[in-house]
């Protein structure tokens, strides 16, 4: 994208001149109850899940192996565009890492755990709503299977803390002295949920 167009876009977003053709949207829905997402027809106005004080204008997609992300932060006067001919979970992780670095959000570092430590987390978990997800181990890597979605990587930050790189979610585990799971706290954008391991 030419520098002139990028600079023009940033000025428009900073002034919130949504009627300008570069905004690409004629109507917007309100922010949701938590204040995170506002949909348009071309771009979305959103708050960063890593720090909700930052507003961003974005659009992205993954189609037939091609992935893209177009993201601007008016408060910073900066943004970035990612284009690749090879999409997949790694692309979302890269996008999230760039966003965290750009806004100065804390970044969790992954550590290595032994296979027997990873094995503790394998199983099926159920929320009170009835929604379930499954954690599986493939060699020294944990993955999560959500219904209807491709598996995503889950990384250990401590022997009792797992996290996603592509979104602001951590799983905190309370373990017994024998390494059995007593309690799970699923923190999504700071909000706690309490799934139970059922298998």
Keywords, separated by commas or semicolons:
five-stranded antiparallel β-sheet, nine-stranded antiparallel β-sheet, alpha+beta, 2 domains, Lipocalin, disordered N terminus, about 200 residues
Sketch the major β-sheet: 9 strands, antiparallel
Regarding quaternary structure, how should these chains be classified?
single chain
Q: Give the count of helical stretches.
A: 3
Question: What is the rounded Rg?
Answer: 19 Å
Tell me the β content. 35-45%
Number of strands: 14
Number of separate domains: 2
Question: Shape from CA axes?
Answer: elongated
List the uncertain runs.
1-5
Class by alpha and beta content: alpha+beta
Helix content: 10-25%
Distance between the termini: 50 Å
Nearest-integer average pLDDT: 83
Strand order of the largest sheet: 13-12-11-10-9-8-7-6-14
User: Topology as H/E string?
Assistant: HEEEEEHHEEEEEEEEE
Q: Explain this structure to me?
A:
By secondary structure, the chain is α+β, with helices and mostly antiparallel strands. It folds into two domains: 3-103, no CATH class; 115-197, Lipocalin, CATH 2.40.128. Helices cover 17% and strands 39% of the residues. It is built from three helices and 14 strands. The protein has helices at residues 3-15, 89-103, 115-119; strands at residues 37-39, 44-47, 55-63, 66-73, 78-84, 123-126, 132-138, 141-145, 152-158, 161-163, 169-175, 181-188, 191-193, 196-197. The strands form two sheets. The chain has a nine-stranded antiparallel sheet with strand order 13-12-11-10-9-8-7-6-14, with no helix packed on it. Strands 1-2-3-4-5 form a five-stranded antiparallel sheet, sandwiched between helices. The longest helix is centred in the middle third of the chain and has 15 residues, at 89-103. Residues 1-5 have low confidence and may be disordered.
